[in-house]
Amino acid sequence: MASPLSWVPSARRAATIGVIGAALSALAVAPASARPVSLKLNYKCNFPLMLPEPLSLTITSDVPATLPVDEGSPEIPINAVADVSAKAVKSLRALEAVSVEGKAAAAATVVRPDGIVLPLNVPTTIVKTALPTSGPVQTAASGEAPSILFPSAGQAALKVGDLVLTLTPRLSDGLLTGVDTFETECKQDPGQNNVLATIAVTDGSASVAPTKPGALKGVPTSSSVALSWTASTDDKAVTAYDVFRDGTKVTTVTTNSATIAGLNADTNYTFTVQARDADNNASELSDPVTVKTAAGGGTTGYRYAVAGTATFKSLSKGAVPLTGAFDTSIAGSTVSGNLALNDAAAKLVALGFLPVDAKLSFAQAGGTSGTFASGVLSTTTKLRIKLPQVKVLGIELAGGANCQTKQISSVGLKSIEPAFSPAAGGRLAGTFAISDLTGCGFLTNLVSPLTSGGSNAIAVNLTPNPVA
Amino acid sequence: MYRIVKSRLVRATAATLAGLAFVAVSPVTASAATSPAIDWNVNAPTPNADADPFYTPPSTIPTGNPGDIIRARVANAGPPTARSLAKAWQVMYLSTDALGNPNVVTGTIMVPKNGASTAPLVTIAPGTTGPAFRCTVSRFINSGAFYEQPAVNDMLKAGYAVAVTDYEGYHENPKTTYVAGRSMGAAVLNISRAATRLPEAGLSPTPKLAIRGYSQGGGAAMWAGQMAPTYAPELNIVGIAGGGVPANLALVAASLQGQPAFGFLLNAMIGLDNAYPELVLDDFLTDVGKSTIANMVAGDCTIELLIGYENKKIDDYATESPFSTAPWLDRIDPENKLGATKINVPVFQYHANNDPIVSPRGAANLRKAYCALGVDLQWKEFDGTGHITTVARGNADVAAFIAARFRGATTAPNCSAI
């Protein structure tokens, strides 16, 4: 539990602000909805013996997007990853240190809606980090800012300021080095955006609905339509999209794409999409799109349930299980369709020790095309791989609707059995490339090397699943 | 840029003049002359890498007594903990160089925020900081990057005032006199005097004084102890603690040749060259040696000395070792060999028996010499640690020794164990 905040102006402390145990127990019942935020800041640190040395810090947190007046927030988790320069590492190694650990205190400030700026001390613990014999190192720190509470409505902001590190390098025998435990002040480089989060402090008026989903479009097969649209934004967070076919809700998804299957060939369908937020505020309906499914003449449609695995070449933690549906139509030797993969869970390892749990989702990005000839089914599916959720050490740090591969992946799948029977299904295998990630916050650089790579294996089994 | 413009001919004259000047000002005792006024109208501290005219010596050294302050400004006592404990000033004060001639030296004076008037004083003789201007100890303290800050904080937390000398020669175009004993000893004794002559600090005029140092600072503390009876007899010194003491530079030099910490030997060559007019390092250096030394003076601090010259030898930089010539050898022994005269106050001497940088044998010999002179000496050997690790490892024992001296406890000499 946090201790009472020291930044509360004393005259108004009891009535207005602060951080009190009682407020926190109330919060356990009705927690404010959290929202992941991240901020990268560059500092210069006065390490012993050195000129000010650069250090970059990426801070992530969950800060409520909105908070009612006079209601305490939850304690705010703070996670940070610092990039320590090669020179600083070399200096510590010159002192015979093999690891470093300690504390980091960030001088944060809270800007209240009424403009008053109050200090907020955020103590964090730096986990013991092995120092490489050369090159830079990343160190992780975590802690909690106390609960905060505002006396009036409007926009508030959390800003991150300078740091004081209290560092203890250690020798290989675990004992202290010649510099003992020391304090290092890190000054923020000027001119940076240092707002970690803004908070809409509400006085009971309704929260805002998400923006209208935009640019809805559909790619048809003879039996399905792959829909995609631009994401909505919200003062809190968009939690879901409802997809309507001719005015009837047909599915709910969490990302900005969906594949609607089980459709008749050569038929017009009109789709609309509506976003919802955590408070169940609904956006306006998107502009409708009318899509005509492909002609069925001379074409045979097949629908399969998909089960299999993807194996990421750069990961050591084994295969990622995959499930989904494959709708396809075969006209002569030409194959078209959609491979829709469900969200999957991947366990990755960052920095050699940090367990990372990533949720993967696979957005349609051009459908499936290919050939079926001489008993061999050969398909290529254009997908974009997204990481809507990434947890480090069990704490949700980043990811989100915009965290995805820079490039669309082409997933090549080829039947394994000598004579693939479209009616019976069968096993397919192939490879795919994953590009660097983008839009994942600070984890972009942390996770990207874990996932990106040119030759990842995929193996799936197609089980016939007749069109309803 | 470091330029060696001396020649042996010019030097002979300079040495003669210096000798005359030495006679004129020595021995020095308090209040021999009118003290100069302290000039507070100076620039504020600047980042380590920048110019800072506060450190530039005046074109004419003012008349006065060693320990008189000629310039002062408010500064930081270090990172936040130190700043919460103490007020701090940087000062430029009168001292004397390796030949006894007047010079100016800078340093830091820190006093506890409460109880300054009754606080005893601890003068810290810092360890090797490097030959470049940016390495100046007072600048590192002010910017929060002094590697012996844990020792400073220990003393401030105990309620002591703390004075830390920068040693001679730290200014733009530095002329540091690393390992020149009489320059270092005078710098240490005179900042102890200066601390009592800064009215803003509010110290007693005659506080109990302990002197401590490690490595270069261990040597400087012992030099201060040997010089004090004649040079600063009025100081109320109650104890001297010195660790990792380079007692015999010949042994130190021999053990650094071809070793990881060779950069310290190059630094000592720069220091001796600057300290003594008849030593002309340039005459021995190859072109590589000349550019190496110039680069060191332009930018090297301790870390660079440690990691920049690993396993090098003198012949990588010189056509002939200066230490094979009589003038250099004379300045090493007897000029800079500790243990020839007695320290009249209790001494705590410690050393790591695995020290690869400062010869443990030289330290053991110094202990024997002091014991033979009748010094009240407590010796401690740190088993298995190296030189750098022992910078901080000795702090608890030093703090205990100093606390015992300030409260007047019985000493615990162990010369009989030799």
- Proportion of residues in β-strands of chain B: 15-25%
Spatial order of strands in the largest sheet of chain A = 1-2-4-7-6-5-8-9
Order of strands side by side in the largest beta sheet of chain B?
1-2-3-5-4-6-7-8-9
Pair with the most extensive interface? A-B, 25 and 29 residues
Structural class of chain A: mainly beta
Strand content of chain A: over 45%
Mean pLDDT level of chain B:
92
Structure, briefly:
Chain A has 468 residues and is mainly beta. Chain A contains four helices and 29 strands.
Written description of the protein model:
Chain A has three domains: about 10-200, Immunoglobulin-like (Sandwich); about 210-295, Immunoglobulins (Immunoglobulin-like); about 300-468. Chain A has four helices and 29 strands. Chain A has helices spanning about 15, 20-30, 85-95, 445-450; strands spanning about 35-45, 55-60, 65-70, 75-85, 100-110, 115-130, 135-145, 155-170, 180-190, 195-200, 215-220, 225-230, 240-245, 250-255, 255-260, 270-275, 290, 300-310, 320-330, 335-340, 345-350, 355-375, 375-390, 395-400, 405, 410-415, 425-435, 435-440, 455-465. In chain A, the strands form five sheets. Chain A has an eight-stranded antiparallel barrel. In chain A, strand 5 (about 100-110) and strand 6 (about 115-130) form a beta hairpin. The radius of gyration of chain B is 20 Å and the shape is globular. Helix content of chain B is about 35%, strand content about 15%. Chain B contains 14 helices and nine strands. Chain B has helices at about 10-25, 80-85, 135-145, 150-155, 180-195, 215-230, 250-255, 265-275, 285-300, 300-310, 325-335, 360-375, 390-395, 395-405; strands at about 70-75, 85-95, 100-110, 120-125, 160-170, 210-215, 235-245, 345-350, 375-380. In chain B, strand 6 (about 210-215), helix 6 and strand 7 (about 235-245) form a beta-alpha-beta unit. Chain B has two domains: about 15-250 and about 340-415, 3-Layer(aba) Sandwich (Rossmann fold); about 250-335, Orthogonal Bundle (434 Repressor (Amino-terminal Domain)), CATH 1.10.260. Chain B has about 425 residues and is of the alpha/beta class.
